[in-house]
Design a protein that fits this description.
The strands form 2 sheets. The chain has an 8-stranded antiparallel beta barrel. A two-stranded antiparallel ribbon has the order 1-11. By secondary structure, the protein is of the alpha+beta class. A hairpin with a 6-residue loop joins strand 9 and strand 10. It is rod-shaped and about 100 Å long. The protein has 2 domains: 192 residues, no CATH class; 111 residues, Tetratricopeptide repeat domain (Serine Threonine Protein Phosphatase 5, Tetratricopeptide repeat, Alpha Horseshoe). The N terminus is likely disordered. It starts with 27 loop residues before the first helix and ends in a 10-residue tail after the last strand. It contains 10 helices and 11 strands.
Length: 377
């Protein structure tokens, strides 16, 4: 996928649908090798003076929304459409409820009084393929005749064709309990089986992990504050590093099983000198802010688990160029994880025994600024 970036701060990303996911499993060593190649790319090389100046002029990240959406969205249209039950397979597997219901002919009339009028209106809408009106009219008929088996059977057929198996199931179950005529009873078993299958299929789709579901911005737990003490002739130097923010942004989808982005950590670093002699006044502490930028890559395994890694690309002070002598530059941290039902991520980094919870704070994410060694294709 390639991004087209405009000057509008609310620009959107348009995915290239021709990208294909890599075939076969990807080992951790291959992923790390890929990251190492990325680290050796021009983005990791020393930034020229012009790029550094541009970074200082425009250091703010740029926000963006999920591909194909307008504003914050739970899922992209492509993901939503994938929930529609599939057409029957040629190998004889169970047919989807919409397909079974499409072959069902409903009686022209059912119910009594006003319920019959709504039933017939639903039949006319169904013949016209207006499923929304058909569903509204048949639901009204069922409300007026809650114990009419044929009306409930009609409601199950309409809701099945309308791709609403959760609404169709109680209607078909109750109609079978009340007793259906021979013709409708003969079709009811196939219809209820296909409805139950569609519900299970939708549930499985909801649980399936895709890059689109990971897209967004996350809050990451802070590390504990760190304080070092250095005793020098005539004074003591106290060094304190206090975490300010820690975030992960996922913004580039590669195929069906990969997503990339960046990780940003900000710390406040304080140096305080305390003189041994009471005759000397301690100077004001020196306070500065540090930024650590990482590129992140996450692979979604077939079982839904996650394998990821991040590599540090830049250490700098805000609006300043990356420091060339950063000893942590190129450091790689790998992790494993899972997606929680609420969309949060739980990961365990290599070398760490405890789990780390990454809270999804928004479906809107951000691109990194230029000059931090992270390039957007």
């Amino acid at each position: 996928m390639r991004f087209r970036v405009s000057g509008d701060p609310n620009f959107q990303i348009q995915p290239n649908g021709n990208r294909r996911s890599p075939g076969g499993p990807v080992s951790r060593m291959v992923r790390l090798a890929i990251l190492a190649i990325v680290a050796a790319a021009p983005g990791f090389a020393d930034q020229p003076a012009e790029a550094a100046a541009a970074s200082r002029r425009n250091s703010a990240t740029r926000s963006m929304t999920l591909p194909g959406s307008t504003g914050i969205s739970a899922e992209s249209p492509a993901s939503a459409s994938s929930k529609i039950a599939a057409e029957p397979e040629s190998n004889g597997s169970l047919r989807a409820p919409g397909t079974v219901a499409a072959g069902v002919s409903l009686p022209p009339t059912a119910g009594e009084g006003e319920a019959s009028q709504h039933y017939r209106a639903a039949i006319l809408a169904l013949k016209d393929e207006n499923l929304a009106i058909a569903a509204d009219e048949m639901n009204e008929a069922a409300r007026l005749s809650p114990a009419d088996a044929l009306v409930l059977y009609g409601l199950a057929v309409v809701e099945s064709r309308n791709q609403q198996p959760e609404k169709a199931l109680p209607a078909i179950e109750k109609s079978m309990q009340l007793g259906l005529p021979e013709k409708e009873s003969a079709r009811a078993d196939d219809l209820i089986a296909s409805i139950r299958y569609a519900i299970r299929k939708n549930e499985a789709e909801q649980k399936r992990v895709t890059p689109t579901k990971l897209w967004g911005s996350y809050d990451v737990p802070f590390d504990d504050p760190v304080q070092d003490t250095e005793t020098l002739p005539g004074h003591t130097l106290f060094k304190t590093r206090l975490p300010v923010s820690r975030e992960m942004f996922l913004w580039q989808i590669d195929g069906n099983s990969n997503i990339r982005g960046h990780w940003l950590e900000k710390n406040t670093y304080t140096e305080q000198i305390s003189y041994i002699s009471s005759k000397r006044r301690d100077p004001e502490p020196k306070v500065s802010t540090e930024e650590h930028w990482w590129i992140v890559s996450i692979l979604i395994n077939p079982d839904g688990s996650l394998d990821g890694s991040r590599i540090e690309t830049c250490f700098r002070h805000p609006a300043a160029p990356c420091e060339h002598d950063d000893p942590q530059r190129g450091k790689i941290i790998t992790f494993k994880g899972r997606v929680e039902p609420n969309g949060d991520l739980t990961i365990v980094q290599d070398g760490s025994k405890g789990e780390m919870a990454l809270h999804m704070k928004s479906r809107v994410t951000s691109l990194p600024p230029s000059g931090v060694g992270i390039h957007v294709d």
